Hints:
Blueprint: E1 7-13, H1 20-28, E2 36-41, H2 49-52, E3 59-63, H3 73-84, E4 92-96, H4 103-112, H5 114-119, E5 120-130, H6 134-139, H7 147-153, E6 157-161, H8 170-181, E7 186-188, H9 208-214, E8 230-237, H10 243-257, E9 261-268, E10 275-282, E11 285-293, E12 302-309, H11 313-321
Parallel strand pairs: 1-4, 1-5, 2-3, 2-4, 5-6, 6-7
Antiparallel strand pairs: 8-12, 9-10, 9-12, 10-11
Amino acid sequence: xxxxxxxxxxxxxxxxxxxxxxxxxxxxxxxxxxxxxxxxxxxxxxxxxxxxxxxxxxxxxxxxxxxxxxxxxxxxxxxxxxxxxxxxxxxxxxxxxxxxxxxxxxxxxxxxxxxxxxxxxxxxxxxxxxxxxxxxxxxxxxxxxxxxxxxxxxxxxxxxxxxxxxxxxxxxxxxxxxxxxxxxxxxxxxxxxxxxxxxxxxxxxxxxxxxxxxxxxxxxxxxxxxxxxxxxxxxxxxxxxxxxxxxxxxxxxxxxxxxxxxxxxxxxxxxxxxxxxxxxxxxxxxxxxxxxxxxxxxxxxxxxxxxxxxxxxxxxxxxxxxxxxxxxxxxx
Length: 332
């Protein structure tokens, strides 16, 4: 393929809970994103984010139970190769990485792998920076590398999120932090919570020279290991949850484990509720809202993911199991 015939790829990075799925949904609402394929990678075995992507006409593929930058890189290459060899025309690929992903090995895949380099071209690496938590993420020295800093360093575009939750002056402070790590990055600030799609896609912002300046060994074999103390606890419950009891438990759990709890999210089946309930949180911050109605004959299954340090999976699953409505119907 010539450069103009290759499929442009946008990689969305950003630390846990920064707002990548929210940005992805905003992009997919635009007519510019017609015939796009979406790949969502999650650290755990349960995919919550893929369930929350609103695009209807797009191809949405999931790569779970590992990080796209290391244990499932082969899956990424296989998925894209299979996608492009299919009958459906694909004009663009969007990849939402797990919040724990180091961008360097992901970038490397598109440059070094012969199949990907022949058919695709990186348009931009976009990182979402959470203005409310960036200082906390950058101060985390629990592992040998700081993933939040790596995500900013390799970004072509940085989108600042959650400014509505910050105090005056947060924009200038956050932008200064970003530029102290990556002076060359383009900073995009949402207006009333929404981004200009044209500032994110079809921008040809990817700069290999800049990446090589950051990581001279980018084109060689890269080894990347996650902080082994960070685990993902996945919970599935077939029986509807008792809403008031579950949320009391969740609030108490977050207050107790907030420092070690990096991310929590879930889609809940609540007793006597016709709609799904969606919640997510970062550290001690929680947010929830009603989702779409359960479809006819759709199994009402609660799916919950907790990512953090020092989590007791067996205890968590046992406590949540005690919060179910034992006699409730399983299907609408």
